[in-house]
Amino acid sequence: MPQSEFDIIDEYFTRQRVRRDDVALGIGDDAAIITMPKGQQLVVAIDTLVAGVHFPNNTSAEDIGYKALAVNLSDLAAMGAEPAWFTLALTLPSVQRAWLRGFAKGLFELAEKYQLQLVGGDTTQGPLTISIQVAGYVPTGTALTRAGARVGDSIYVTGNLGDAALGLRCLQQPAEYAAVPTAINKLNRPEARIDIGLSLRDVASACIDISDGLLADLGHILDTSNVGASIDRDAIPLSDGLRLLCEQNTDHYAMALSGGDDYELCFCVAPQNESRVEAIASICGIRLTHIGIIEHQAGIRLHQAGRACAMTGKSGYEHFSG
Does the domain spanning 5-139 belong to CATH 3.90.1150.10? Predict the structure, then answer.
């Protein structure tokens, strides 16, 4: 069994198959050395996952490794960046070989999909916490941001919303919610929409990933762009399982509106670019749904069948909210 942080690094994290040309020096020194490609800008994001906060305590190590990287890749997708490399800070209560083996398997499964190289990090003892910093490239001046939405733009989302929140309910309240495997998988293994993000670089006027819920994250676009929005609740894409629950009780729409953890993209598109969105959906094989429009009036207005309806649920997850 590994006895030190260096043993852990050597046994589980130095044997990744991905080797990138832009990494001049990776794991094994005080810092990594990266060679920046000409004409590219570096896009950097970091997220921390804490046991019991960002994933249930009984989540498998493999799923934790996968999700820890996926949530960071989602940030790159929202910026239209191509993933390149990442660092890992791993805090463990104790050294457990089976757990480390599963964690590394899930982590590198996703890293190899996008040819990301692990270039360094840190290993410490304490409550289970995973921090990953990921970096990617965009051609200079082409990155997507939250600013840029304009009155008249159409609002789109990728995939379905609310399944991660439903998956969490299935795990936390099994007596009330029958297990929905696809929803639980969405919670444990979100899919970063990298291909969509890359395709939207010269199409979208603004973009964000949905980590804290549609209302909260769309709100960030609106605040940054100094605009408002009108959303058609009936247009919000739902899985069959969640749609059935919403038909039984409209309060379940809160999962899609503010549940969070879906890691889909929400983006705005000028009317003249809508045909390009349809082409992107076809090429990438991912559902892209028009859910609303950008307006002058600040804030978000939710309507159903032409009538205003209540904002079911809270505005989104916030740390330190009490």
Answer: no
Structure tokens at 57: 């305590």
For the chain, domain boundaries: 5-139, 154-308
Superfamily grouping for domain 154-308: PurM-like C-terminal domain (3.90.650.10)
Return the closest-CA partner of residue 221 out of 133, 295, 320: 295
| Count of residues making up the chain | 322
If you search the block for the tokens 């205003």, which residue do you land on?
Answer: 308
- Chunked in runs of 10, what are the mean pLDDT values of the chain (322 residues)? 66 78 89 94 96 90 97 98 97 93 96 96 94 98 97 98 96 92 96 98 97 96 98 97 95 94 97 95 96 97 87 58 54
Q: How far apart are CA 191 and CA 55, in angstroms?
A: 16
Q: Which residue has the tokens 């980590």?
A: 211
Q: How far is 135 from 267, CA to CA, in rounded Å?
A: 21
d(CA 85, CA 67): 16
Distances (CA, A) of 233 to 25, 112, 237: 50, 37, 9
CA distances from 145 to 60, 79, 132 (A): 34, 6, 21
**Beta-carbon contacts of residue 94 (< 8 Å; ≥ 6 apart):** 125
36 burial (CB, 10 Å; 0-12 / 13-18 / 19+) is: exposed
Identify which of 32, 136, 123, 16 has the alpha carbon closest to the alpha carbon of residue 85. Answer: 136
Q: Which residues pair with 268 in a beta bridge?
A: 155, 206
